[in-house]
Amino acid sequence: MSGRAYVLALVMAAVLAGGTQACSPARLGEAVRVLADIDAGAGPSALKEQTPTPVRRPVRYTVDGRARAGDLYLPGDGALAAMVLVPGITPEGKDDPRLVAFAGTLARARFEVLVPDLPKLRQLKVSPEDARAIADASVYLDGRAPGGRPLGLTAISYAVGPAVIALFEPGAAERIDFVLAIGGYHDIEAVLTFFTTGYYREAGAAAWRRRTPNAYGKWVFVNSNADRVGNAADRALLAAMAERKLDDLGADVSDLAGRLGPAGATVHALLANRDPERVPGLLARLPPGITGDMAALDLKRRDLGALKVRFVLVHGRDDPIIPETESESLAAALPRAELFLVDSLNHVDPKPVGLSDKLVLLQAIYTLLRLRDAPPGP
Length: 378
What we know:
It is built from 16 helices and ten strands. The protein is α/β, with parallel strands linked by helices. The model is unreliable at 5-9 and 15-20 (pLDDT under 50). An eight-stranded mixed beta sheet has the order 1-2-4-3-5-6-9-10, with helices on both faces. It has a two-stranded antiparallel ribbon with strand order 7-8. The protein has helices at residues 3-16, 25-40, 46-50, 97-108, 119-122, 130-143, 160-166, 188-197, 216-225, 232-247, 254-257, 262-272, 279-284, 288-297, 325-333, 355-373; strands spanning 55-63, 66-74, 81-85, 111-116, 151-156, 178-182, 199-200, 209-210, 310-316, 337-342. Helix 7 links the parallel strand 5 (151-156) and strand 6. The protein is globular.
């Protein structure tokens, strides 16, 4: 199907589904083109045909004496809003081809996009320290047009944690108008339970549900926390285990695990456990450096009800890294959140295939464009 035929088919489906009620037809058509461009990645699309190629250029900036760097994407048609796009956990960081393509799509949708360079995420580490860097990116980007346009923040997966925490940093919450969170989390203990055992449950439910998790998640956890173990030998062994597993999830690390001391053994016991009921006790035995950072990254411990920022939450019911119940829980804790669940949205490389999923994502993109077009907050 050609790009124009795809757009026409999706618009017709949206009309038949009642998706244009109380909606702007022009914005709906744009949302369809944006969705098709996300699906196309770096390939051709109707949006690429109809919009100038965005300009991508490196920038350096300083906020309160802190030197930062990143990439700025400038839309050829002029910006209607701004967006801080947080890179994912990948060695390529802001240069990951998938992120570059997504930033280009946002720029074609007339967002001025800043992708900050976050070294820890490039090292496959999640840290609460990144919250300040994300907040600084929002301060810098807002300063390019202070008060004159809406400012958004987009984060994916584990990066949703530092992105939300950034809203509690001085200077951020009063600048950011909306957040797009894709495949995010709310409760650290629930996430650790899922990616170590595969078990998860809905809020308030007693019964466990299970699906096979992607082991990548738990080895990112080890990689993030190895240097927080007090014993130097255990730090080195855990880092080596994580490096081997992240390179090849099927690799054998029993030779390294057998040499762990008491501190490192508490981490390995959590990884080896398959009983969800044992997870709280195993977490309590972890070294204090790890539990301290876990607490700092735990959104369940934050007063999210005080946030006035609008949230657009997107999650797939087949997510093998973080279950969709986490976005459901996060939405329930936020005062201004819209949740969009789809059946199939692979966590690492989102490629929805069903028409019903595309219609849900179309609604999410329409909502994002509506926030782009709204007056900026006070």
